[in-house]
Amino acid sequence: MALILGIYEEFINAIRSINLKFVRLVTQLKIKEALSSVSWPFLLPIGLGVLLATFSLAEILSWLLERYPVIVWSFFFGLILSSVITVSRVIKQWKTLTIVAIVVGTITAYGLFSLAPVSTPNAPWFIFLSGCIAICAMILPGISGAYILVLLGKYQYILESLNNKDFFTLFIISAGALVGLISFAQILGWLLKRCHDLTMAILIGLMCGSLRKIWPWKETLTTFIDSNGKEIPSLQSNIIPSSFTNEVFYALFFMLIGILVVWSLDLWIRKKG
After folding, report:
1. Which one of 55, 71, 162, 266 counts the least CB within 10 Å of its CB?
2. Average pLDDT for 227-239
3. Is 202:64 a contact under the CB 8 Å cutoff?
4. What does the alpha-carbon distance between residue 21 and residue 222 come to, in Å, rounded to a whole number?
């Protein structure tokens, strides 16, 4: 959505303002100076919006996903599919290397979602590393930080730490996430400034590849049990519906709605611009 709304680069640059200088000022309790060194007028509304959406929509979305998963994922598939087309306009010059970058990004994301979770150590260094990697995924379009934790074998472990109030583990992964966020935002911001079209092409490719994960019709191959004893799919394969049912009709209808939502939003933004 940040790409669609045209604020992705500003968002990355705002995160980049949370740097070592900001951390140093906070540790010195110079709160006023620390706030003036970051883009808080931009980050604060986004943070509040995320919190508002989490508390107001999370329960509804969870209920919908539990009862109507195919229809919900169809809507998201339409959103992402149309987003790829609208976001591609940010690329100023189309070259062979740009197209290659999109292909590379697509293959990378597509391959990532075919991986199976692995068994990994619960050592503090690996928890820290998991936090770094997961937060990097969260600021890349189309890739879920939670899914990265599943692949690293740490999703359930982190959930259990949260439920058991294991503050040491939570501190380690939070520290890793903070370090990963600050460092990766610096790298991504630098790439956007120096190699804008190439970087955006890779990001668009990641969105294309993520369509594999969002495809509505799936067959579950392997699962894992979360901390609440609920069976969660960990590896799935995409399938084609065997017949045209009412569910397929509604799924295609909401996929179209998702496409129209993005196109309408894009049209509104361009008119305002």
Report:
1. 55
2. 70
3. no
4. 45
